[in-house]
User: Which sequence fits this backbone?
């Protein structure tokens, strides 16, 4: 039994350690800020363990090892030293170090600023390269160049959200009517996952996004393409999908640059087919997922403002999906 | 003070107990005294956080004179807590009596117990003020 228990504990430990890896983990950093926070976490944990061992070691000593009466001076020393002096110095040192690295997370950006506006439950994204007069508008995905410090100007529509890409840095709350700032520097190219980290309503858990750290040249090329208008996808289904998009009134809420659709209620769809996810991290951006999303929004994302277009036939949904997936 | 170490004698002589009651009569009011140090701590906390929040909201930055003033307030708060703590330590009177816990419930015990409590509260308030002051020195600006 004992062996089984130990094996279970080891398996549980291995499983929980496995949970520390991955693309949404503060403990597998992809950038300088996350690395600093990771170190901070381990040092804080070390300090806490040290304090725990010292305190409980003393408890153990006086209650089990040497339970007899001890000289007053020694007893006072243990209570005052272990109970007041040691924790005060240790916590003071940890606090001082933590505070000293706090400003690093708010350093000014190297030129590119990304404005992110939290909605229920998705992200309005605007890229403002240095000196830009107008932003490149996108949604539900963050791309950033590796090796550059990128500034994020954050605010929110109706409720408080929190912007967090654990693998790249610390979280920052997003408030309606008040702009907050955080800067991130990705060091390793990769695809990370961001997640709203402040409860913001029934689909809070589905408010996520993909964060793609790219080599600077690739990022510049991507941003140029993203700034352009949508190229109308070719093919019978996609062309029928474009007509359905207009007929169903999708453009009342969604904008597609280069078409007459300029709605601002929902996410900009100009290059939605080029994104890695749809529905703010809800589904992979495949044609099948587009069709599922359009016809089942309310079950995929409870409370979402977009109605389910479940009156569409499978063929119509597939055509619409082909059009949207083609908007790369 | 030596009378308290002979409880037999004290219990046998009601007149002496009455005298003790009179001697420590101010205890009824001095409960307030044990809250002095935490009150200074909380006042300092509110002063620092409100002043910096207002400066950041109105000016977008914390002017040097405000940081200096708050640091001076911190020194003053620490001095005041130190004084309260010293008074409390004297009231606890542990060095004379050697009595840590004052368990007897007589007026003098209560007096010394309140000193003990006030002394411990002064220690934690002192540490609290130090920790509240650290961001003033280590975090610049409003971000």
Assistant:
């Amino acid at each position: 039994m004992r062996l089984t228990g130990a094996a279970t504990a080891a398996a549980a430990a291995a499983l929980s350690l496995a949970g520390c890896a991955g693309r949404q983990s503060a403990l597998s950093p992809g950038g300088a800020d996350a690395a600093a926070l990771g170190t901070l976490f381990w040092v804080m944990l070390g300090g806490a363990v040290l304090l725990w061992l010292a305190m409980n070691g003393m408890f153990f000593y006086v209650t089990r090892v040497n339970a007899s009466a001890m000289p007053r001076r020694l007893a006072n020393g243990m209570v005052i030293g272990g109970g007041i002096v040691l924790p005060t110095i240790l916590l003071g040192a940890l606090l001082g170090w933590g505070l000293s690295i706090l400003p690093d997370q708010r350093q000014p950006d190297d030129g590119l600023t990304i404005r992110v506006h939290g909605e229920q439950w998705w992200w309005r994204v605007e890229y403002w390269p240095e000196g830009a007069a107008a932003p490149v508008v996108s949604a539900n995905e963050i791309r950033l160049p590796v090796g550059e410090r990128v500034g994020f100007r954050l605010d929110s529509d109706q409720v408080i959200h929190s912007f967090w890409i654990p693998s790249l840095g610390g979280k920052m709350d997003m408030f309606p009517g008040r702009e907050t700032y955080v800067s991130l520097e990705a060091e390793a190219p990769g695809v990370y996952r961001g997640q709203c980290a402040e409860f913001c309503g029934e689909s809070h858990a589905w408010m996520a996004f993909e964060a793609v750290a790219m080599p600077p040249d690739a990022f510049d090329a991507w941003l140029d393409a993203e700034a352009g208008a949508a190229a109308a996808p070719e093919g019978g289904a996609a062309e029928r999908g474009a007509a359905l998009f207009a007929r169903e009134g999708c453009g009342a809420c969604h904008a597609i640059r280069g078409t007459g659709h300029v709605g601002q209620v929902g996410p900009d769809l100009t290059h939605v087919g080029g994104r890695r996810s749809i529905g703010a991290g809800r589904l992979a951006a495949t044609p099948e997922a587009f069709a599922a999303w359009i016809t089942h929004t309310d079950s995929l994302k409870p409370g979402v403002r977009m109605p389910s277009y479940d009156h569409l036939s499978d063929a119509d949904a597939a055509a619409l999906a082909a059009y949207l997936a083609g908007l790369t | 003070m030596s009378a308290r170490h002979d409880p037999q004698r004290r219990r046998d002589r009601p007149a002496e107990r009455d005298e003790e009651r009179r001697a420590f009569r101010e205890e009824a009011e001095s409960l307030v005294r044990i809250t002095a140090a935490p009150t200074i701590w909380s006042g300092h906390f509110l002063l620092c956080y409100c002043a910096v929040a207002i400066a950041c909201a109105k000016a977008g930055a914390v002017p040097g004179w405000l940081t200096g003033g708050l640091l001076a307030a911190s020194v003053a708060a620490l001095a005041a807590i130190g004084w309260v703590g010293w008074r409390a330590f004297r009231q606890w009177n542990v060095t004379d009596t050697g009595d840590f816990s004052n368990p007897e419930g007589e007026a003098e015990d209560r007096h010394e117990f309140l000193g003990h409590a006030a002394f411990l509260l002064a220690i934690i308030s002192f540490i609290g003020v130090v920790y509240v002051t650290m961001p003033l020195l280590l975090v610049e600006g409003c971000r």
Q: What stands out?
A: The domain at 236-325 of chain A is CATH 2.60.40.420 (Immunoglobulin-like). The longest helix of chain A spans residues 32-65. The mean pLDDT of chain A is 91.
